[in-house]
Amino acid sequence: MAATKASALSAIGNVDRQTLRELTLARVREAIANGQLPPGTHLAEIELSEALSVSRGTLREALRHLQQEGLLQADSRGRLTVRVVTPEEVHDIFSVRAALEALAFEEICRLEDRSGIVAELRALLAPLADPEVPLPEKLEADLLFHSALCRLSGNATLYSAWLSVSGLARATITAAGSVNALTNMSHDRHAPIVELLEQGDVDAGRVFLRQHMTEAADRILAEMTTRAD
């Protein structure tokens, strides 16, 4: 009996630490998304851990995750800064996304019954229509929608390719500030994707996705140019 109790307790021993790491991760990600930590900001570990009231170990775990997501980058000395996205990267990432998601759209349209997929994608768009949802959550909802479009295609290689660029996609979306991000993530810009998918209109879907990505990239590039000037 004693051994059983000990085993049960040990199974939940790291919950608090894990929760703190996730909260730290969410807080730093939110600060990057809303511009509180703008591109190029050096993240001094001691100062940031004190500001967040977490240990440096917990902070390191969160920062490592954000680096994997593409939001942070390390210099030659290993110091982390908020990633500075170049105009070339913005153009490249949205071109790749357009190609991958157009292929995913085509794959799904081949299915005789798309009703379940349409319902799932439509549900994923709900946070984008809610004005009370904060920007960081809208960003997650936006990426989750596009990720699901690729995952639901059933093409594992396609989905893996999308995941490989998702970190940079996140960085490009946040690169031009909250106003542009909210415009690019609006529900009205995404709803036609689901509608065309429901209709099975492959040609219109390809055209719309290319336009969807081009418009998003153009807004980001315009804002980056304005800031540089």
Describe the structure.
There is one protein chain. The chain has twelve helices and two strands; from the N terminus they run ααααββαααααααα. 75% of the residues lie in helices and 3% in strands. It has a two-stranded antiparallel sheet. The N and C termini lie far apart (71 Å). The protein folds into two domains: 81 residues, Arc Repressor Mutant, subunit A (Orthogonal Bundle); 142 residues, GntR ligand-binding domain-like (Four Helix Bundle (Hemerythrin (Met), subunit A), Up-down Bundle), CATH 1.20.120.530. The longest helix is centred in the last third of the chain and has 27 residues. Helix 2 packs across helix 4 and helix 5 crosses helix 8. The chain has 229 residues and is mainly alpha-helical. Strand 1 and strand 2 form a beta hairpin.
